[in-house]
Amino acid sequence: MKEKRGNILVIIPILVILLTIAAGYLYFQKQETKPASQVVQKTAKNTPGETASNSAKFPPSPVPPVNPNKDPLSLYTTDYLKRQFPPNKFMGLENYPQEITSVKESDLVGLKCSPYYNKDWNGIWYRSGDGKKLADGSQETSAFFQKLQSFSEILIKKPIESNFQLCETEDGRQLVLHDNHLGLVKADITFVPVTTLSDPGDPYFVCPNPIQLTKSDLFYYECGSGDGGAAYGFLFRIDLNQKTSQLIRKCQTLDAQLTGSERETKCE
């Protein structure tokens, strides 16, 4: 009897240990097979700013990059903007027309545009604004010539003579200005000419400033020219659907050396 009792006393601790191990194993198995929605909800309790209903569907994600869609060779200098014109006045003289400023933000289509590039008499391309010469081997220079070549050879099948600018719309279209001709690149990579911004015959006519695009496809562009103490500003309304452009504002500024008295500005 004493021998049997001793055996039982030895077996009991072993059984306790085995039962403890089995219980622990079942507990962890249960945790691992818990439904995903319960796991997410538990995580979301420690995530500030999330509601239980949202977190049940969308688990917390890492902070996205500043611009996840940024092409390293992109020509675009900004993200989509509804109003491209600067806060200062038209030609630094007067407010932009009410036709432009009265459009509600909700009625505008976002644009992101490249710099305006122009070519001099020697065939050298420059970036407008700071006059940077495109010959430094930078990513911008590489991207510019890639876009220029593909556009001129594939889409319009002729060289670009004087100026080039790209704008991408928030709804996926590309607007291209080349040699003062404005066109639209469609999704199937075909080019549709829209209109020509009329050159009034003034020296050095350029169109470097897209202003805004409405949801009814009215595109506003600011152009300018000048030489020898005279400067001109032009505002165009372009109807992308009707393929027409109309000059809606023109200002002329003459320096004192031309007027003989003081600087003079006239707008019409």
Description:
- With 268 residues, this protein is an alpha+beta fold.
- Helices cover 26% and strands 30% of the residues.
- The chain is built from six helices and 14 strands.
- It has helices spanning 2-32, 36-44, 52-57, 98-101, 139-155, 256-259; strands spanning 108-109, 111-113, 117-119, 125-127, 132-133, 163-169, 174-178, 181-185, 191-196, 206-214, 218-227, 230-239, 244-254, 264-267.
- Strands 2, 3, 4, 5, 6, 7, 8 and 9 form an eight-stranded antiparallel β-sheet that branches. The protein has a six-stranded antiparallel β-sheet with strand order 1-10-11-12-13-14.
- A hairpin with a 4-residue loop joins strand 6 and strand 7.
- The chain is globular and about 55 Å long.
- The chain starts with a helix and ends with a strand.
